[in-house]
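Format notes (please read before filing issues)

Several people have asked whether sequences and structure tokens are stored in separate files. They are not. Every record keeps both together, in the order shown below: the sequence lines, then the token lines. Line labels are part of the format and must not be stripped during preprocessing.
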Amino acid sequence: MLKRLHTIVMVCLLPIIAAAQPNFTANEFVPEYNEEFGYGTNMGYNPPYSDEQIAEIAIGKENQGIHGAGVNTLRPGLWEFFLESWGYDIRTSTFDYYGELGMTNNVAIVGYPSEDHRDKTTYCEDTDARIFKNLYSPIWDNGENGTPVNDTNYLAVYLYKLLPLYGDNIKFYEIWNEPDFDYGGNAWKPKGVEGNWYENDPDPCSYALGAPIWSYNRMLRVSYEVIKHHNPDALVCTGGVGFPSFMDAVLRHSDNPDGGKITEEYPLTGGAYFDVLSFHSYPHLEGIRTWDLTTNDFKYERHSDKAAQLYVQKKRDFEDVLAEYGYDGDTYPEKLYITTECNIPRKKFKDHIGSEEASKNFNMKALILSHKEDIKQYYIYNIAEDGIPNDYSPEFNFMGLYEPIMNKEVYTHEYTNGGVSFKTTAEVLAGYKYNATRTQVLNGAEFIEGAVFENVEGETIIAAWAETRVDESEDAEAPITLAGEYFNETTEIMYWDFSMTKETFPLEDPNLTLTATPVFIKTTPVAEENDPPLTTNPHNPVTIPTHHQVILAEAVPEEFGNLNSYPNPFTDLLTIEVDDIDEVDIKVFDALGREIGAPVNKSDIKATVHTSDLENGIYYIEFVKGDAIYTRKMVKSNAK
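Then the structure lines:
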């Protein structure tokens, strides 16, 4: 509610502030962003391709035989050192061409001073600072030099000159790229561990900026004021950050040169000066392996679903840090989120995840889950594999929509499997919006993940897959039965390579088996003659005629107080706890809805079901108390 109120206020203010220093911050106002989801890519450096040609193979010009990758937004750089050397208008025709191709909601990385404008202060004996000189000169000078910005504040002048030339084709401004790149290993550490950034300021010697953290806050503030002066609806972003601990440091300090202290002159923290949390995630580095104290060895989970879970968790970790400092939509407006670098490799190096199948599946899952997590844009790394040997991190050479294009004939690009699955996801979901209420139809299904999308015509697409669970395996299966408005004579299925084959397959049977590779199940509503149109009841969108159908994850009825069933998966014994257990009838059904005569032994508030005779698979436990009925899905597995 707070965010909407501030939006209304700003509509009245815009004509007043457009030609003056902004009189608001992101603590009062974050612009709404309701544009089409951004299927983006990083562009890399791939001669002989020009940047215009990279844009063409990203979005495609099919009428000219130039195949694209489903991309609708780009992430180029406009660095100060480059524009100072070559002239500020050197890239205007290129950015105008992006706009002609239909890409205007681009991210631009800004910053990186020329050597003449770099701060020469020694914050660390072994590392040059990478920030602008004169950051603390006043931002504004009341027009004394013919412009409203102070000519000695080099960051302000650079942005003031850049924005009129490029602003029509940029929506998001990233202040730096990976300012928190960590050389010392402290950014990963949790609270309580020596050197962690939650409780200690980053050492200028150990991270990318080579300067104190409040210098980054100052860059955010200068950038925010100048960008908003030019366009109050432009979106100012953090610079592709990778560590929630760095964000904690940004949010607990002001831009005060005296240690980032909060004072009357510097009353606001860094959170007041950005609208969007732009972050990077490379799951192969972020938790695919964890230390197991029971075995004193690493536990590996190198499969696409663990990678996807780590990606989502990264966003939620940032969300938690921001909420802790009041950016929760209550105290201050919530931030928007974009992902400006993400991928996993399609080849294995060291003990990382890496396979063609995992990469193909991850690209689809990350995109689908980005919709689900309200991440506004997702930029894959990279447009093409670079093919350049890199001994330090060779896996980054095998992340791309295309196989290497450097030094190849232009427009002879060939897709990777991950590029095909990315393009398929973008093409199939074009024009569709994520529907959180409808997605509840998947939440009751164990080992099934996905989301439901809807377009303005009421057509639905279920994007779903069976979750992988085994290290270095993309083998998984889970049965699904479509019901209600999600199955009729129009229902059809599209597979991961739809963007290449253009084939759809009618579904004549509502029962199918999902695998670890997502599929897209599309249904058009069909109203029988004289029947009212289909509607969605947000409390019960699907009628459940049998136990084995994909069902709404119903809230447990109050009649079954303190219901708990474990373990899941179970092996030879299933334990059930529930209040008044003597009054609860418990039955077990198989995946086809047939009752299984498994013995149920009750004692106190606990019941045990002996399941040693049951085959591995999916089972449904039905609880009945009076008129109340509740069904829970469980899995039998003897896998070690």
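For reference, the curators noted about this record: DSSP finds twelve helices and 27 strands in the chain. The first strand starts at residue 38 and ends at 42.
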